[in-house]
Amino acid sequence: MSLPQEDTTLTRRPAQAAKATATSHAEPHEEPGRHWFVNRPKVYAADVKGRFRQIKWAALIVLLAIYYITPWLRWERGPGIPDQAVLIDMVGRRAYFLWIEIWPQEVYYLTGLLILGAFGIFFATTLAGRIWCGYACPQTVWTDLFMWVERKIEGPRTARIRLDKAPMTGAKFARKSAKHAAWVGISLLTGGAWVFYFNDAPTLMNDLLHGEITSGVATFIALFTFTTYFFAGWAREQICIYVCPWRSFQSAMVDEDTFLVTYEDWRGEGRGPMRKSQSWEERQAAGLGDCIDCKQCVHVCPTGTDIREGQQISCIGCGLCVDACNDVMRQIGRPIDLVRFDTQSNQIAKIDGKPERVKLVRPRTVIYSLIMLVVLCAMGIALMLRPTLDVSVLRDRAPLFVTLSDGSVQNAYTIKVLNKTHIARSYLVTFDGLRDAHLSVAGDEAAGSGGSLTLKADADTVATYRVFVKVPAASVKPGSTDVAVIAKDQTSGEVGKHASVFMAP
């Protein structure tokens, strides 16, 4: 029995591709009319049903739902504070993540998140290859959505091939226009949703509906719309194969116990179509294996990879070829999993007749887990212990000091008091290390004068003051004197310090 064969001119074996590439690089005087480069054949991914296809649909729905719904979630933080659960407030210079509020001075938390993300992908890759690429990468998710729209409008794989080869007609123009209009619509929703993460979503939506958005918002929506349309609609697998750096790193993350999409060549080779009258005993006698060379595994691959040629940099590990091959194996009455997720050590064990094993705990996985745990604990402890008060001091450098008529020496400082609470606070400021120092605030007599000052900071703001420090001639030390500027919260008692110097002749 033989399955219907689809047009396979759009796929080529690596050996053929290498031959074509070598030919394409021939010198013009040797091969007249040859091009310098060979264009990559367009990938017409076929639809498939099966376990991994269902997992991809579930991942797509969940991830898109998270992406589009998150900006609309609310989180009450108090009066005057944004109530959007996740918000990157560029104007207010804050980042809000549920109960966590990140200030610009705390950008190191972003570093921690990047480290967690990187080692999380390392960990997942060590266990199951490019599972991130196949199921969770934004490029994969939106490309999968765009391909689904394409199949719904232009039809299955063979219909799309015929449509592209056919001359332009009214029907073809209508189908192509409808597809690209749908792509632009999805891209516009994508770009608009991304901008919501940087603005209050209900407010921005109201502005969008009334055409009152700023040029900056319009520019970013247009930019994100274009990049989504180009990457998911046109570039597609080219991003995964040629642009994304992860395809180069993954080889360093996998080992013999990593689960990868694997073709059991010891069972499938040699390849050949199956005739109706041919028995499996006759196929075996002819040196043929379970693979009937139907190329269904290639036709469903979103990157056009032939997994039968071994591990390749273009494989994103989505497993759709597993579903396609299993469907064929069921039709011809052969055992499934000719293409499957498996490890190299298991494949060797099967050939040698030894039991299979799953080894999840390995040096790589342990090291990656420990690194993520340490970073996560460090971030958690830093968040729990982080102060609500921060003090920064900048001493005037021109002039370094001023000698007053009575012989006393005066230095000027710019003091910034950061109040991270949502309540206005008062702070008692002193200079530790100076004897008989007299402090005053430029233009603010209410702050007091003498050995200490009372500085106020509104809720969730940075208060800036210009402070003069005068030391009598009898108490001043020549040269540089180390001092500590101390600000004490008069409500909670929390203390903030900043080191500085006092300059004298």
Automatic annotation (TrEMBL):
Region (Disordered) residue spans: 1-33
Cellular component annotations (GO), alphabetically ordered: plasma membrane
Biased composition (Low complexity): 15-25
Transmembrane intervals: 57-75, 107-128, 181-198, 213-232, 366-385
Record GO terms (molecular function): 4 iron, 4 sulfur cluster binding; metal ion binding
UniProt entry keywords in alphabetical sequence: 4Fe-4S, Electron transport, Iron, Iron-sulfur, Membrane, Metal-binding, Transmembrane, Transmembrane helix, Transport
InterPro entries cross-referenced by the UniProt entry: 4Fe4S_Fe-S-bd (IPR017896), 4Fe4S_Fe_S_CS (IPR017900), Cyt_c_oxidase_cbb3_FixG (IPR014116), Electron_Trans/Redox (IPR051684), FixG_C (IPR032879), Ig-like_fold (IPR013783)
Residues of the 4Fe-4S ferredoxin-type domain: 282-311
Keyword Metal-binding: yes
Pfam families for the chain: Fer4_18 (PF13746), Fer4_5 (PF12801), FixG_C (PF11614)
PANTHER family per record: FERREDOXIN-TYPE PROTEIN NAPH
The protein's name: Cytochrome c oxidase accessory protein CcoG
